[in-house]
Amino acid sequence: MKTWNNGSFAEFMTDDIQVKIHSVITEGLQMLYSQHYTYQGLTGSVLSHRDFADYFPKRFYEQFKKYFSCATDEGTYLEVLHVYDHANKRWADEMPGQTPKENLLFASIMLYQVMAEQSILDIAPNASNDFHKAFGWPMISSGPGGGPYLHPLKMLEYAGLSPMKCEAPLLLEYVKKVFYYLRQEMNTILNRRDSVIKDKEAACRFFEQCDGHARSRIRKYLDREEQSIHELLFKWTTSPDDCWYKMLESEGIPLMNEIKQS
Predict the structure, then answer these.
(1) Which parts of the chain fold into alpha helices (H)?
(2) pTM: predicted TM-score of the whole model, two decimal places
(3) Among 12, 34, 106, 213, which lies 20 to 30 A Cα-Cα from 122?
(4) What is the residue-wise DSSP string for 116-154?
(5) How many Å apart are CA 108 and CA 176, to the nearest integer?
(6) In order along the chain (262 residues), what is the average pLDDT of each group of 10 residues?
């Protein structure tokens, strides 16, 4: 390098040349990185579609089985009869995920899955068992009294996953994104896509009992519930109520859904 091209680079070939090269390359990489980096905020909890796509199929159900240790394996789906702590041998404040981001993802996904389960129970109760068996979404019950009909946010509270007032805005941001992704999953199910079917016989029975009109009503039910959950989480931040029972009561919302006859 010192002699190449009549010594063009000779003046640069000092003892600290490695440090200089490292500095130039690092500066270039930093500039390139900054052009594609999205600010993660103070918590590092910004959610991307890749985060959801990596977490939902790969880690959610593994964490679900550990967090709800009473869950039974029904072949193609898990059934949880009791979501509260002592039924699952949990001490208070144990969390399902390894990071705050995973905890927020877990709570948001469970919230939507409870809503989906309740939409089937409300619109097509005879098809409920086959829904879980055909598509693998868990069957979740709060325990004696409320069963699977307890309001989703109260169900979350029973499970030890309700947000504190200061956490509600962050959970709401996760809920908005996760609900969007899971709405697409639910539409794939209701559109009879073979790729999501885990039990073909159960799927046939489900669609026999849940015709096109019923599936349209399920979509509308979930749209209403999504909007309601968004509003409730927003109000929870400044509400004087200290539990979801009081909050729902003050909003005139039933604590439990009506039990429809199968």
Answers:
(1) 4-7, 17-36, 49-55, 61-67, 100-123, 128-135, 152-158, 168-190, 200-209, 212-236, 244-250
(2) 0.88
(3) 106
(4) HHHHHHHH-GGGHHHHHHHH-PPEE--STTTGGGB-HHH
(5) 9
(6) 76 79 89 83 87 94 97 97 95 91 97 98 96 98 94 97 96 97 96 94 96 95 98 97 96 94 68
